[in-house]
Task: structure prediction
Amino acid sequence: MIQNIIFDMGNVLRRYDPDYIVRHMPIQPQHRSVLCRQVFQASEWSRLDDGTITNEEFWEAVKRRVPETAYDDAWTALATWHQYMPPVPGMLHLEKELVANGYRLLLLSNASKVFETYAEAMPELRIIPERYFSATYGVVKPQEAFYRLLLERSGGRPESCLFIDDMEPNVRGARRCGIKAVQFAQDIGRLRQALHDHGIAVETDFQMTEVRDEADFRRLSQVADEVWHEHFASILSPEQIDYMVEKFQSYEAMKRQVAQEGYRYYFITEQGKEGTPEIRGYIGFRVDDEAVFLSKLYILKAYRGRGLASRALGFLISMAQSYERSKLWLTVNRFNTNTIDIYRHWGFQTVRSACTDIGNGFVMDDYIMELPVKEVGK
Result:
């Protein structure tokens, strides 16, 4: 029986992408490409993971390869890059579910010693009490010695463990040691199904699936059109509903929101009769500086009253915890009394009202509501 779930870190719990990192940190644009090559793709970078070079020694090597005008940005990159590893969507939610179901979580990661300190700033790592970073022990995946070290120090038997990693050589290394292993291909639904197939108690019928490609956005716009015309029929005029759907929830509007305004959309799905995910609703949100804005949360009429919305909210709370935001906030039409009651039941409090001109002679007459978010492990 599997009792221990072992996670990799990079591109499993937190996204590691050097191009993303240099695009988002506060450095000069003209230095991005050289720092990507001379810091994150440098030959010495892997030596930080196996512990054969210190950060100070790595810094001296970088200084020899980059122009002096880039020193400040290079130091910024080396000192703060871990802050630009966004959470992998859905992973914190999965971790909390595993903990609640009695599983022991461990971390096995090729990473430098500084991550022993950085880990406390990342909720996905903070929730795992037993962490094994390669540089601390001078051995890296996929060397079998690293897996065996974890087994010896944790007291886990190979047959009681399952390992999750995004890289196939690391998965093979675990299997050579008798540990069951799953390769994570950036699909949380498939990962949950794989865990379920190994006898691990995780939810598989309910999923949050990110809207990514053209077909997804086309389908999302159809769902939005259907649910808005049904949900707001008793509150708004047909003309205002048509206008708002076109302005905020059309294919073009949502594509723009995701590409330019920082929004993310997810389908709320359940496993259907044919064993494939079927859409029950959707959620849209944006991560702001201090909070997460819950822009949209709608369930199709036929599937309301089954707890799907509250489970979607739980996913969003985990997302806020991943980004270390202290609250959720939303706007809700002040005449939408049933929805307001639901939000209050979940713990949202009305903080103020707002009347916004949205053009074409229409306004949004809303309450603004907030929900505090507790930190993981606090």
Summary: The chain has three domains: 4-15+85-204, 18-84, 207-372.
